[in-house]
Write a structure and sequence with these properties.
Length: 449
């Protein structure tokens, strides 16, 4: 995600965007748009499909004001002392039915009109996390606390049978950026995102989304269908007190999904806020750096010895910027050169636990002009662009824990091979780890009068 930000600063497409666009285009699925559907809000019909969705659960709609919505649902949490232990399905806890299938009262739940956004105009992008970001898995106790429960998952969410897991993402100072709780009951799954102070930033916006007022709170709602797989999705975004909430559930039964979403919105818009990130604190804050560097500074970094040598950069290319990123699951150094529409984009990755480490296309010893020619392509028919060679993504393994990704445009296979191998020069891994003090010249030591 930080790499995406770096690319955007350079005004050309980030790695991974092109295949994503091609996949979306290949799908080519634009189902006909159905009329907006409204969640059933009362009486026997709601009880019937609630019963179908939640199995042994049965409900009668009553005013329910005397019920405690934060009373718990029995769960099987993982021991907090050892971190979140996962069951065979990857769940930290499984929500159980405290009523054991017996009939009981429930609240009046107002309906929401969910517009069908299938095939409508959408805007997608990448979410840039805060500087120094890191994440930790949530324990069962932390999941319950974020949901506004005490010892158990609040029963009025109607999540009996769902397995839950989650993670919290923090900024470099240890403040919560967002908390994500995942639920799965087999056929149905959901994602609940909580953020302090505002609605969580989304990577997808729907033009046909609408905002309704729900008990004095504005709620943005959407629904859509995935053609060919028989699944639907319902979503809602709103503020629960000072906590932003984004909820999306997917499954085969739209009526059950709309009901589950309405129940969650009702719970989250109570007079006393329910969802919260306040109890979440990190166990530790990892060391991190996020800096823009000059080329000289970049070469003095520990990974700087893997950047192209000055003598191997083709003529006409000018240095633009360099950046170092260090933190949980990331340790990389990038540098960028440009010449008109052409560019040389190099990122040196060091392997980290749980971090991104690109697959290698070649090893250092396999890099030749002939090998590169087979991996690249020559383009001369791009309107408004210059003809030349393109390598959208090429990764070379230099050591077991160091790989370098090259994104090149306007560089010939011969130039690319020289740039990657150093023109036959031997690059020492620690060549630039220490600042080099310049040797004084006579006119610096003894200025001329």
């Amino acid at each position: 995600m930080n790499h995406y930000r770096t690319y955007m600063d350079r005004i050309h497409a980030p790695a991974g965007l092109r295949p994503r666009i091609l996949e979306d285009a290949a799908a080519g699925k634009k189902p006909r748009r159905a009329a907006p559907r409204r969640a059933l809000a009362g009486g026997l019909a709601a009880a019937c499909f609630a019963l179908a969705f939640f199995g042994a659960w049965q409900y009668w709609r009553t005013a329910g004001d005397a019920l405690d919505p934060t009373a718990g649902v029995a769960a099987t949490p993982a021991p907090a002392e050892t971190g979140p232990a996962l069951d065979e399905r990857g769940h930290t806890l499984v929500v159980e039915d405290p009523f054991e299938g017996q009939n009981h009262s429930f609240y009046s739940v107002a309906g929401l009109t969910f517009p069908d956004c299938t095939g409508g105009y959408t805007v997608s992008g990448s979410i840039v996390p805060p500087e120094g970001y890191f994440s930790e898995y949530l324990t069962a106790e932390e999941i319950i606390a974020a949901l506004g429960g005490t010892d158990e998952v609040p029963w009025s969410l109607l999540w009996a049978g769902f397995g839950l897991s989650g993670e919290a993402v923090y900024d470099g100072e240890g403040n919560v950026w967002r908390a994500v709780i995942y639920g799965d009951s087999g056929e149905t799954s959901f994602t609940l995102i909580l953020a302090p102070g505002d609605i969580p930033v989304s990577d997808m916006m729907y033009e046909d989304a609408v905002t309704e007022e729900y008990d004095g709170t504005g709620v943005s709602v959407t629904s859509w269908r995935t053609a060919g797989v028989g699944r639907e999705a319902y979503g809602a975004e709103f503020m629960s007190g000072d906590t932003g909430v984004s909820f999306t559930c997917t499954g085969p039964d739209g009526d059950s999904l709309s009901w589950l979403t309405c129940v969650l919105v009702r719970y989250g818009t109570l007079a006393e806020p329910t969802f919260t990130t306040a109890p979440l604190t990190p166990d530790a804050i990892p060391e991190w750096r996020s800096e823009t560097l000059t080329l000289e500074e970049a070469r003095r970094e520990e990974l700087g010895g893997w950047l192209p040598l000055d003598g191997t950069i083709p003529g006409g290319f000018a240095f633009d910027s360099a950046r170092v990123e260090l933190g949980q699951g990331r340790d990389y150094l990038s540098a960028y050169w440009y010449k008109g529409y052409d560019y040389i984009d190099v990122t040196v990755y060091r392997q980290t636990e749980g971090g991104y480490f690109p697959e290698a296309d070649l090893t250092d010893g396999e890099v030749t002009a002939q090998a590169l020619e087979a991996l690249g392509s020559y383009v001369d028919d791009d309107a408004g662009d210059t003809p030349g060679w393109r390598w959208l993504s090429l990764t070379v393994a230099f050591t077991d824990d160091v790989r370098v990704n090259y994104s090149l445009k306007g560089v010939t296979p011969e130039q690319a091979a020289e740039l990657i191998t150093g023109g036959g020069l031997i690059r020492e891994y620690t060549a630039y780890t220490q600042p080099v003090e310049p040797t004084p010249t006579p006119w610096q030591v003894y200025p001329l009068e």
